[in-house]
Amino acid sequence: QVQLVESGGGLVQAGGSLRLSCAASGNIFRLNDMGWYRQAPGKQRELVAVITVGGSTNSADSVNGRFTISRDNAKNTVYLQMNSLKPEDTAVYYCYAEVVVSYYLTTSRYWGQGTQVTVSS
Predict the structure, then answer these.
(1) CB-based burial of residue 71 (10 Å sphere; 0-12 exposed, 13-18 middle, 19+ buried)?
(2) Helix spans in 48-101 (H)
(3) Is the dihedral of CA 16, 12, 87, 50 positive or negative?
(4) Are 36 and 93 in contact, with CB atoms under 8 Å apart?
(5) How far is the C-alpha of 2 from the C-alpha of 22, rounded, in Å?
(6) Which residues, 6 or more positions from 40, have their beta carbon under 8 angstroms from its beta carbon?
């Protein structure tokens, strides 16, 4: 019904930058909140940043001032600009979207497939 496809992960040196993208497609009536989680090896999944349909944002203390979340509602896409990357940012990053599904008008959370971000020291 609904697919989220991520892109933009990779290997970068500490201090570098990456931009993640996540495009939603399918039976979408409306996208509400969109955001990013990450999961490092041996750790629990943690919320990185979230953005509402109106553009209000919230992010984890660990990434404040370094990561910026944004969205393009016309493209059903959410972005995560990551600057000043640190080795501790190494993780698999997952996007999600709260989707109001067409026809049924029910709201469900959908997830991307995950993209690896590796920051070398």
Answers:
(1) buried
(2) none
(3) positive
(4) yes
(5) 13
(6) 88, 90, 91, 92
Is the distance from CB of 53 to CB of 73 less than 8 angstroms?
yes
**Model confidence band, residue 105 (pLDDT cutoffs 50, 70, 90):** confident
Which own/partner pairs from 100-108 qualify as long-range (CB within 8 Å, at least 24 positions apart)? Answer: 100/28, 100/29, 100/30, 100/31, 100/32, 101/1, 101/2, 101/27, 101/28, 101/29, 102/27, 102/28, 102/29, 103/27, 103/29, 105/29, 107/32, 108/2
d(CA 9, CA 12): 9
Contact 36, 78 (CB under 8 A): yes
pLDDT classification of 86: cutoffs 50, 70, 90: very high
* Token code pair at residue 85: 């990357």
Beta-bridge mates of residue 78: 22, 71
> Whole-angstrom Cα distance, residue 73 to residue 54?
9
* In contact, 18 and 120? CB cutoff 8 Å: no
pLDDT the model gives residue 39: 98
